[in-house]
Specification:
One of its GO terms (cellular component) is plasma membrane. The chain is α/β, with parallel strands linked by helices. It has 21 helices and 10 strands. The chain folds into 2 domains: 319 residues, ABC transporter type 1, transmembrane domain (ABC transporter transmembrane region fold, Up-down Bundle); 125 residues, Rossmann fold (3-Layer(aba) Sandwich), CATH 3.40.50.300. The protein binds adenosine-5'-triphosphate. The site of adenosine-5'-triphosphate has 10 residues, from helix 13.
């Protein structure tokens, strides 16, 4: 019999029979723009296995101390899968006994008892397996999300303003993190369960009738073939869905943040239109993609449903032709039950393949982000004297972009005050962001206490610096939490002290819940000047040896600014200070003033020497003096 079957396939009859169907299918899909390789269909299993192994390898370290629990979940799943094969087998064998003519209930009763026992035991085992799997998977997802956040802390800021925008990262953490979790828990375990159960059931079917095994292999291969065809569509839909989701998040964020601007310019209609267009795109992708995916996936799983009838037909043909001779009548019900159970499990596996694609895409996206290089360096052995030295430093915001800083050198001694002034866009903020290692210089060297900062741990550098910038970010949390960012362990007394120094006492009194008032969109919104004072209080709390003030008092009224200047003067004592300021009267006492234009220091000196020089500083000073005399007519 086997020889005949072999000759039939070898002689090409099978190919001849399947070729027109295959050509039609591939022809239609090619017409839809899908790349098709005839033989490639048979690589599906290999590729899927490879993807699952890759996913597993990626998952494994994040399971950390939950690895044992996850493995126990897999072992329990293995037993659960074996238990799942017992009901069809025991019912089938009971039926065989009945069909063969046994009238004694005692012959059948053990099979019924085994069937019930296995069902009860399976329910028990499955619960334990899932509980362990879900716990371990959740743990891995949490560890992965923390790793992403940690990586965000350690990559140059340029990475986060480029391809990995905040919206893209939100999608990565929320959406991709979710699919990573689902794949780790549900799909991998379900596939493992399906494979084990299918193998056991297929062996049982082969025991009833060896030809059934061939039939199962053929229908499964046909299903995999179809799934292979579906895969590019699935990939395309999933990729555009991910991209659009990122865009939608970005637009929603922009719309929410900029609603006041849109309204002020009477453009809220346009902004809403943009937002709607993005949401509509998302909807279109779902609508276009979903029916195709469901239809093609159903075709894939439908093939395996033919296993039972096909096996019976083949057995019948073989019997009728006299190729085989066995008690088909007695065996067929058991065979059918076993095949039905096997096909249910195969269909279950096939149904997880497309969602598995989402998990796989999530893995690729997350790996891509995690592979962006972190800022190198681990030195933190700075001494007490934190002198700052820039030597021929150059920097540009991207390859091929014009240099924002070129060959810039200066030295700031410990305890001195260095002011950086210059026209808007000259590169002043960029300069301090290089010192903080928010970006990596492209040329020259920046040294802190004699150590090249490119060899230093960015966190160690940032721990030694307090930054108060013109853009103050407050978190949607209480005022207390926002202040304690400066020093999470600060005592109440210290907190009151800096609140007083930053002229925040009146504000705290006026807030409904004082320091515990929620800030942000769910709570109280602060004015620009109030925000700036909160940032100053944070810096006072941090008490770092280097203070960087980037237009720190620009949003304050003159009276508050004077008061804050006094507080800052007290803070400046004994520290190195770098002040970026447009209001030149705030820097007249600086030890050195660097005048920056076009990314270069064009003048340096004290206020008096610079005025004497009559250069750019002199012109800026004169322009400001004149501006103070201006008034609107
Ligand atoms: N993240 C960024 N990516 C690309 N270009 C940037 C980025 N940040 C700043 N720039 C550009 O670099 C140049 C210098 O900007 P920077 O903010 O350092 O100037 P500045 O002197 O501090 O200006 P201002 O006084 O107006 O704050 C500007 O042309 C600005 O557009």
């Amino acid at each position: 019999m086997w020889m005949r079957f072999w000759c039939w396939t070898k002689g090409g009859s099978l190919n001849v029979a399947l070729m027109p169907i295959w050509s039609r299918l591939t022809g239609r899909l090619r017409a839809c723009g899908l790349p098709m390789k005839r033989r490639a269909a048979f690589a599906t299993t290999h590729q899927r296995t490879h993807e699952m192994i890759e996913f597993f390898r990626f998952l494994w370290p994040y399971l950390a101390h939950q690895q044992g629990r996850y493995l126990r979940a897999l072992v329990l799943t293995f037993f659960e899968a074996v238990l799942a094969t017992i009901p069809p087998l025991s019912v089938g064998l009971g039926l065989v006994i009945l069909i063969r003519g046994s009238a004694d209930i005692r012959d059948v009763a053990p099979y019924a008892a085994i069937c019930f026992l296995s069902v009860i035991l399976r329910t028990f085992v499955i619960q334990h397996a899932w509980r362990r799997g879900i716990f371990a998977g959740d743990h891995a997802a949490e560890a992965l999300r923390n790793r992403i956040v940690e990586h965000m802390r350690n990559v140059p800021l340029g990475v986060l303003s480029g391809r990995w925008s905040p919206a893209r990262l939100a999608t990565l953490i929320v959406e991709d993190g979710r699919w990573f979790n689902e794949t780790a828990v549900f799909f991998l375990i379900r596939i493992f369960q399906g494979v084990v159960a299918t193998v056991v059931l297929a062996l049982m079917a082969a025991w009833f009738a060896p030809v059934a095994l061939i039939v199962l292999i053929v229908v499964t291969a046909a299903s995999l073939l179809v799934i292979r065809v579906v895969k590019p569509i699935g990939k395309r839909v999933i990729r555009s869905r991910n991209d659009l989701l990122g865009q939608a998040l970005l637009r929603v964020g922009e719309f929410a943040d900029g609603i006041a601007v849109f309204r002020a310019y009477g453009q809220s209609g346009n902004a809403r239109k943009n937002l709607r267009a993005t949401v509509a795109n998302l909807h279109d992708v779902a609508l276009d993609g979903a029916p195709a995916l469901i239809f093609l996936q159903q075709i894939g799983t439908a093939f395996v449903s033919f296993a039972g009838p096909l096996a019976v037909t083949v057995i019948a043909v073989l019997q009728l032709r006299g190729v085989t001779e066995f008690a088909a009548g007695a065996v067929t019900p058991a065979l059918l039950l076993t095949l039905a159970a096997a096909t249910t499990f195969i269909a279950g596996i096939l149904r997880t393949l497309l969602p598995l694609e989402l998990g796989n895409r999530a893995r690729i996206n997350i790996s891509e982000f995690l592979s962006t290089p972190e800022l190198p360096g681990d030195r933190s052995d700075f001494g007490q004297k934190l002198d700052i030295a820039f030597k021929d430093v150059s920097f540009s915001y991207g390859p091929g972009k014009e240099a924002t800083i070129s060959n810039l050198s200066f030295q700031a001694d410990p305890g001195s005050v260095t002011a950086i002034v210059g026209p808007s866009g000259a590169g002043k903020s960029t300069l301090v962001s290089l010192l903080l290692r928010f970006h990596e210089r492209t040329g020259g060297a920046i040294k802190l206490a004699g150590i090249d900062i490119s060899q230093a741990d960015p966190a160690a550098i940032q721990a030694r610096m307090s930054l108060v910038s013109q853009d103050v970010h407050l978190f949607r949390d209480t005022l207390r939490t926002n202040l304690l960012l400066g020093d999470p362990d600060a005592s109440e007394a210290r907190l009151s002290e800096v609140i007083g120094a930053a002229r925040l006492t009146e504000l705290v009194k006026a807030l409904p819940d004082g320091l515990d008032t929620m800030l942000g969109d769910t709570g109280r919104t602060l004015s620009g000047g109030e925000r700036q004072r909160v940032a100053i209080a944070r810096a006072l709390l941090k008490d770092a040896p280097i203070l960087i003030l980037d237009e720190a008092t620009s949003a304050l009224d003159p009276i508050t600014e004077r008061a804050i200047q006094d507080a800052l003067a007290a803070l400046e004592a004994g520290r190195s200070v770098i002040i970026i300021a447009h209001r030149l009267h705030t820097v007249v006492d600086a030890d050195q003033i660097l005048v920056v234009d076009n990314g270069q220091i064009v003048e340096r000196g004290t206020h008096d020497t610079l005025l004497e020089n009559g250069g750019l500083y002199g012109r800026l000073w004169a322009a400001q003096e004149k501006a103070t005399g201006w008034r609107l007519r």
